[in-house]
Amino acid sequence: MAETYTLPQLPYAYDALEPYISAQIMELHHSKHHAAYIANLNKAISSPTAANTQSLIHFNGGGHINHSIFWKNLTPASSEDAKLSAAPSLAQAIDNEFGSFNEFKGKFSAALLGIQGSGWGWLVVNAGKLEIVTTRDQDTVPAGTTAIFGVDMWEHAYYLQYLNGKAAYVENVWNIINWRYAEGRFTGEAEGEFKELRAML
Amino acid sequence: MSIAASARSTLLRASKASSVRALGSLTAVRTKYTLPDLPYDFGALEPHISGQIMETHYTKHHQTYVNGINDAQEKFAAASTPAEQVELTSLIKFHGGGHVNHSLFWENLSPTSKAGGAPPSGKLGDAINDTWGGLDAFKGKMNAALAGIQGSGWGWLVKDNTTNKLSIITLPNQDPVNTVQYTPIIGIDAWEHAYYLQYKNVKADYFKAIWNVINWQAGEKRFSS
């Protein structure tokens, strides 16, 4: 019997990311959107008869994985974890790979704004090397890579606050990246996560 | 000519002009795309689509696609190698598709005080009955197709140009309907920006409500064209 997936608790209150992401967005995003991915994933797994079962598992399972990482890779701006100094080895690797943090930030932001439709932007590590990748819809990061942190570029992630002004959302999200969590993922803590679910996607 | 037909033919003309220019054999004046007139007020589709959604959707989102296609075409014309042009095709498809799709969409909506929601009569009504057994059965299938879109995209009622048969298709992002194969009859925007300010995550309610403002007269014209 396959595992039944449940909504993870947010590691902070819905309003904790204000003013950068509104409490209303956070509540809908977590309690409605993420919850729907989980409900639809469990449904697809428990009655795998529909012709599109594989596609439903891929989409909703991906949605569950992506959002689970996303909540943890955000943190209130007032937190010590929101400082780049919380990620010493990752910050060094970013400098080595992109020249400077600002170079990296510019490239990452441009990649986010270049997404055509719904999707995500990710910093990943691929065979020891940092890379920026974008994934469409709820696709997870490419096989063989590990997500360090991600930014949700679905319109539901920002629309109620920013409307079509997604560049402002992208600019603001840098204030609430959880660098301590990113450092942990960079140094091997993400290994083996969602192993069973990933194998089903 | 309808705004949508005009957008399509302008797009065709301009892309031909661009390819010709790229060959360096002819100088052509590039057509700049512009936002088509909205045939009703922003608030005219309320309560089914809010005035705020309509205003943002038209003046911001559609305008961005118009700017995007103009910008991409300029870069395409200035590109000095085929490789550079190939790089731009994704932007041309995305923004050009966004312009074509939204132009069709505005035209196939109408306030309920005008054509909005009045069921199709004539040949289109007959064809829907023949295909699905009735308008409500068709709406049910179309709404299920719309709800099943994974990510951003559109749902379309289309007519096959060879067989004249109706069918429902969905397309991701701003991919336009392949008009060699199909004639688009009615399009419904399933991007979150089309409904989120009013319906939030409950997109099923948006898909139910939009039938109250579907302009079947516009659909009939396209069907008979």
UniProtKB/TrEMBL annotation, chain A:
EC number from the UniProt entry: 1.15.1.1
Name the UniProt record assigns to this protein: Superoxide dismutase
Chain residues that bind Mn(2+): 29, 67, 152, 156
Function per UniProt: Destroys superoxide anion radicals which are normally produced within the cells and which are toxic to biological systems. Destroys radicals which are normally produced within the cells and which are toxic to biological systems.
Keyword Chaperone on entry: no
Reactions mediated catalytically: 2 superoxide + 2 H(+) = H2O2 + O2
Tagged with keyword Mitochondrion: yes
Gene from which the chain derives: SOD2
Manganese/iron superoxide dismutase C-terminal domain location: 89-183
GO MF: manganese ion binding; superoxide dismutase activity
Domain Manganese/iron superoxide dismutase N-terminal: 4-74
Species assigned in the record: Orbilia blumenaviensis
Automatic annotation (TrEMBL), chain B:
A GO cellular-component term linked to this record: mitochondrion
A molecular-function term among this protein's GO annotations: superoxide dismutase activity
Cofactor (UniProt): Mn(2+)
Keywords: Antioxidant, Manganese, Metal-binding, Oxidoreductase
EC number: 1.15.1.1
Residue span, Manganese/iron superoxide dismutase C-terminal domain: 120-221
UniProt-listed InterPro entries: Fe/Mn_Superoxide_Dismutase, Mn/Fe_SOD, Mn/Fe_SOD_BS, Mn/Fe_SOD_C, Mn/Fe_SOD_N, Mn/Fe_SOD_N_sf, SOD_C_sf
The keyword Lyase belongs to this UniProt entry's keyword annotation: no
Catalytic activity: 2 superoxide + 2 H(+) = H2O2 + O2
PANTHER family: SUPEROXIDE DISMUTASE 2, SUPEROXIDE DISMUTASE [MN], MITOCHONDRIAL
Function, as annotated: Destroys radicals which are normally produced within the cells and which are toxic to biological systems.
Family membership: Belongs to the iron/manganese superoxide dismutase family.
Annotated protein name in UniProt: Superoxide dismutase
Originating organism: Orbilia blumenaviensis
